[in-house]
Transgelin
Amino acid sequence: MASQGNPTMANKGPSYGLSREVANKIDKKYDDNLENQLTEWIVAQCGESVGRPQTGRLGFQAWLKDGSILAHLINSLHPKTSPAIAKPDRTSMAFKQMELVSQFLKAAENYGVNKTDIFQTVDLWEGKDMAAVQRTLMALGNIAVTKEDGFFKGNPSWFNKKAQENRREFSDEQLQEGKSIIGLQMGSNKGASQAGMTGYGLPRQIK
């Protein structure tokens, strides 16, 4: 019995109907200019030894598909003594390549990339959604620029700094003082309630 427009097979050969329409929409989201920018950043981070992809979506996919360049990219954002991926070497075995891509995705999430910005392994390995791959790399670059820890290489203007929370703005002493004030407020509210206030702050009516 012939297969009828199975979306999972869209990358394997001709597809028709809804699956082809979806594939076309995904392809249109791919940004050629962004491809050039991301290529320059990856080469800046990893060195000229990673080479450069052939121009276009398929070339970019083939360049990153085995996961080795992605692994070197995430490792370049960490100290050499504690790499995010222990064995980022290139391999010809398909399952090892997919495993390496999965390790990159987990490392990117640990680095700070939101889950919603993380592509699926098949998006890259089977070319299902290269726009999603671009989105993940952009999110990674944005965080790398924001960290300002000395590991980012390239032009900072390629990415946007993310808003950071000022978690270290208060000293331990100030935090303790804040807790004391809150405690006093809670105590006074409790006393007021016992003195005739209801839970809604209104005095009880004495009949």
Q: What stands out?
A: The two ends are 85 Å apart (CA to CA). The helical segments are 18-29, 32-46, 57-64, 68-75, 94-111, 121-125, 130-147, 172-194. Residues 39 and 52 are 7 Å apart (CA to CA).
